[in-house]
Amino acid sequence: MHFTPLERHIFFSKDGKTAWFDELLNTQMKICRGSGVLIQENKTWKIKHYVLSMTIPNDNVDDVIKIKAPIEDALIEEYKK
Fold first, then answer.
1. Is the sign of the CA dihedral 18, 20, 25, 27 positive or negative?
2. pTM: predicted TM-score of the whole model, two decimal places
3. 79 partner at 20 to 30 Å CA-CA among 6, 35, 71, 72?
């Protein structure tokens, strides 16, 4: 997989030891959005949390739900057990 940043915003805590970011990425899945939190340990940045999401245009949400529903309805029932 190859992710190329299109846009990235990075923020730091007052002590400079925690950073969080959000980003737009060009991927084989087309535009994705990522966000994460890093902390500095022994002069090295470590990722503590990262989320990657595919973007879905609002006009296409209903179509995507129809594709996801058969798979995810079964998963939801499993999680309820």
1. positive
2. 0.81
3. 35
CB 3 within 8 A of CB 27: yes
3-state secondary structure of 41: strand
Residues 15-73 have pLDDT tens digits of 999 999 999 999 999 999 999 999 999 999 999 999 999 999 999 999 999 999 999 99
Q: Which domains does the chain have, with CATH numbers?
A: 3-80 (3.10.450)
Rounded to whole angstroms, how far apart are CA atoms 2 and 41? 27
| Alpha carbon distance, N-terminus to C-terminus of the chain | 35
